[in-house]
Amino acid sequence: MDRIIQMILNKLLGRLVNTAVNKGVDYAARRGKSPDDMTPEDHAQARAGKEVAKRARQAAKLTRRIR
Question: Which of 7, 29, 55, 65 could cysteine-pair with 46, CB 3.0–4.6 Å?
Fold first, then answer.
């Protein structure tokens, strides 16, 4: 019974952490500005920052898979 509860908690905590990391990356890419206050250049820079973060996550995933 403990193992089942632990598995469920791990799934929920994993989702929570992933959501928090994604929100943090979005916030950092926007540099704390709200999307309404951003210029088109800011939007482009934020989009580029999200792409870099996405590639970093992919690289980390690939590295874990190789190891």
Answer: 29
Rounded Cα gap, residues 4 and 52, in angstroms: 37
Q: What percent of the chain has a predicted confidence (pLDDT) above 70? A: 100
pLDDT for residue 55 is more than 90: yes
CA distance 11 to 3: 12
Q: What distances in angstroms separate CA 43 from CA 27, 32, 53, 54, 60, one per listed residue? A: 12, 12, 15, 16, 26
Lookup: tokens for 57: 């996550």
Instruction: Looking at the chain, list the stretches that DSSP marks H as alpha helix, in order from N- to C-terminal side.
Output: 2-30, 40-66
